[in-house]
Amino acid sequence: MKEEIAGHQSIIKYQNNEFTTVDDMIATEFPLTLYVNREEFATIVCSPTHLQELVLGFLASEGVIRRRADIQDIHLDDSKGFCHITLTKELTHNTAHYSKRMISSCCGKSREFYFVSDAATAKVSMTDKTIKADEIIYMMEQLQQSSTNFKQTGGLHNAAISDGHDFYIHRSDIGRHNALDKLYGYCIEQHIPIRDKVLIFSGRISSEILIKASKIGVGIILSKSAPTDLAIKLAHDLNITAVGFIRNGSFNIYSHPQRIVK
């Protein structure tokens, strides 16, 4: 299957008191079912791009793997929407929590799935990384400029991982957590240390996004939007610097401000 994050769709548009038929770009939604050691593990609804990175990042964030070497074989059949993963070890998770559980692309009750392994896999950041205020503004501007797919569809989340100066990689997905898993998977594949990296994100910093950032291992998360109160509490507990409302040359620091300098 050709990787396409969006496709053309004929729609009816109402504008200036008229109905017209126009061609529009619509975000692609794709279900990918994972089998781990021949056992059905989960189905992720995602954008059909960078799927191997998504699988690696998802399994790592759920504590199934710690490194690329934990996977003996990975076979992606994206024409049918399946990925078969063989580990170098037994699957020790209680699969009753995972089997056939849908991972939704939107915000909702299906996200309770992540609470199964959050306590075991969330990490307290130990980084002493600092970044300058003008670098924060610059990185968010770069993320916005890179988000061509969002501009076309209006239906995608965008994220990037950076050393505080330049992006390592930028990824988009209909699911905000999927975009972060793709970044995590890229770092695993490329053997990039994550501890001193910065996560730049287009959407709201919810508790699930803050937990995902802690699972990845970053100590700083930047967003153009706002955090929730629970996300701020978790950021304090997990020693993560959360910065939001990065817009028009200003931003708010919600936790651990010592990492942000002039």
From TrEMBL:
<comment type="function">
    <text>Required for formate dehydrogenase (FDH) activity. Acts as a sulfur carrier protein that transfers sulfur from IscS to the molybdenum cofactor prior to its insertion into FDH.</text>
</comment>
<keyword id="KW-0963">Cytoplasm</keyword>
<feature type="active site" description="Cysteine persulfide intermediate">
    <location>
        <position position="107"/>
    </location>
</feature>
<dbReference type="InterPro" id="IPR016193">
    <property type="entry name" value="Cytidine_deaminase-like"/>
</dbReference>
<dbReference type="Pfam" id="PF02634">
    <property type="entry name" value="FdhD-NarQ"/>
</dbReference>
<comment type="similarity">
    <text>Belongs to the FdhD family.</text>
</comment>
<protein>
    <recommendedName>
        <fullName>Sulfur carrier protein FdhD</fullName>
    </recommendedName>
</protein>
<dbReference type="InterPro" id="IPR003786">
    <property type="entry name" value="FdhD"/>
</dbReference>
<keyword id="KW-0501">Molybdenum cofactor biosynthesis</keyword>
